[in-house]
Amino acid sequence: MQTKIENVLNIKHISVVFDGFKALTDVDIQVKRNTIHFFIGPNGAGKTTLLDIICAKTKPTSGTVHFYPQNGSDLRLTGMKEYKIVNEGIGRKFQVPSVFVELTVIENMMLSLKGHKGVWNSIFYKLSKEEEKQIMTVLEKVGLEGRRDVPAGSLAHGEKQWLEIAMQLVQKPEIIMLDEPAAGMGKPETFRTGELLQEIKKDCTVIVVEHDMEFVKQIADTVTVLHEGKVLMEGDITDVLADQTVQAVYLGRGGERNAEH
Hints:
Layout: E1 7-18, E2 21-32, E3 36-40, H1 47-54, E4 62-67, E5 75-76, H2 82-87, E6 90-93, H3 105-112, H4 119-123, H5 129-141, H6 157-169, E7 175-179, H7 187-200, E8 205-209, H8 213-219, E9 222-227, E10 230-235, H9 237-242, H10 244-251
Parallel strand pairs: 3-8, 3-9, 6-7, 7-8
Antiparallel strand pairs: 1-2, 1-4, 4-5, 9-10
Domain ABC transporter: 9-253
Keywords: ATP-binding, Nucleotide-binding, Transport
Protein name: Urea transport system ATP-binding protein
């Protein structure tokens, strides 16, 4: 039986150099299965570049990323095509929601179901009862079951973010990567998003790039602090925020939002 704390992702000796600029230098991170793992750090620390490496949007100059699926052999993600990584169960949501605003919530969900190719095919596709149940289960999880026939463009900002998370979840990923999911949200929406991610981690490992320290404190299992492309510290959020070097890095740039508290 597989243990809950085993690694689902192994980032090993990753370095990235862009035209002489070292974006990442010898980064080593292990991500445990069914946890919420945050990458934090000042702007330019290399957080988003690291997500780009995991999903093969960017190629590393050196190093490898290995993924250990729940069932099946380990996979070397480095060198794989982006779409293949998605098919293997690694989803990513970018900071700006990329929902189809003219389509309804359920039509957006239909688009995300594996195997449905193209907008028109998806819209005129008849859902099986099993697929509809799958979609509605996910919409219920994110609190949008009552909004299924509403155009996505009329959703509030937080609801759009939750819809996009739902569009990832319906594909049943083993890892979901989120780039600043709390950006632009008020406190109640941010707290609700935290509760949602804690629910999601029961079935799926969550990797988050975030600046809002209150949000990080609410739900983080592990926090990796990046600074100038290197791992500065990793551990529990309380220990990380109490560390003088971490405080100096944040306070040295005018303070990350809430980081000094």
